[in-house]
Specification:
Oligomer: single chain
Strand order of the largest sheet: 3-2-1-4-5-6-7
Number of helices: 8
Strand content: 15-25%
Largest sheet: 7 strands, parallel
CATH architecture: 3-Layer(aba) Sandwich
Order of helices and strands: EHEEHEHEHHEHHHE
Distance between the termini: 31 Å
CATH superfamily: NAD(P)-binding Rossmann-like Domain
């Protein structure tokens, strides 16, 4: 179902790899980022998921230039790690607002065109920590777990209109977020990963591209882990 794809947080890491993979698969792909700057020849729109006005303006721009958004990949996210007993209110609210509420804002706006067209794909990028948990990431894990409940509710709500809603839950991936962990912490993590390595962003992107394709037309409400076995059993 090649069409128009919008990838939030698409200017780096998993988002950029996803945008490039979808473009190669034949989708007209647009990156959404705060700066709104294109990367590697991909068009972009300014999109701040924390602002309803910005989300609406970004979708208006994509629709005006390319057509209705058929594929939404809600990938934009931040981390503000720390122990809960010392976690400031802003670190709780900012992570929930960006990673969970921001994704819902985008899904709400995308659903309008998809319902009219009676087709579409909404794909949330969660994390292995949604079910596994992670000390020092209570805010992040709560937001990523919320995406699962949201996706499954949306799958029931939008399914009769031909729209699928799924979640991809990556483990530890070679991105800017994991680059700051340091060698010791990375080695500790890898000891828990059966495959013994970090994922490459392309490996997550290919799973997202599958969910965006016609091959996944009967997949909805699913949580697909791309975590090297770290979260198995959850």
């Amino acid at each position: 179902m090649a069409g128009v794809a919008l990838v939030t947080g698409g200017n780096r890491g998993i988002g950029l790899a996803t945008a490039q993979t979808l473009q190669a698969a034949g989708f007209q792909t647009v990156i959404g980022s705060r700066a709104g700057e294109g990367v590697g020849g991909l068009p972009a729109v300014a999109l701040d998921v924390n602002s309803t006005e910005s989300v609406d303006a970004a979708f208006d721009s994509v629709e005006g230039g390319h057509g209705t958004v058929d594929i939404l990949v809600a990938n934009a996210g931040i981390t503000r790690d720390g122990l809960i007993m010392r976690m400031p209110d802003d670190d709780i609210s900012d992570v929930l607002e960006t990673n969970l509420v921001g994704a819902l804002r985008c899904a709400r706006r995308a659903s309008r065109g998809m319902v009219r067209a009676r087709r579409g794909r909404i794909i949330f990028v969660s994390s292995v920590v949604w079910a596994l948990g992670s000390a020092g990431q209570v805010n992040y894990a709560a937001a990523k777990a919320g995406l699962v409940g949201a996706a499954r509710s949306l799958a029931r709500e939008l399914g009769p209109r031909g729209v699928t809603v799924n979640v991809v839950a990556p483990g530890f991936v070679e991105t800017d977020m994991t680059a700051v962990l340091g060698d010791e912490r990375t080695a500790e993590i890898l000891r828990q990963v059966p495959l013994g390595r970090l994922a490459h962003p392309d490996e997550v992107a290919k799973v997202i591209a599958f969910l965006a394709s016609e091959d996944a037309a009967y997949v909805t409400g699913a949580v697909i882990p791309v975590d090297g076995g770290l979260g198995m059993g959850h």
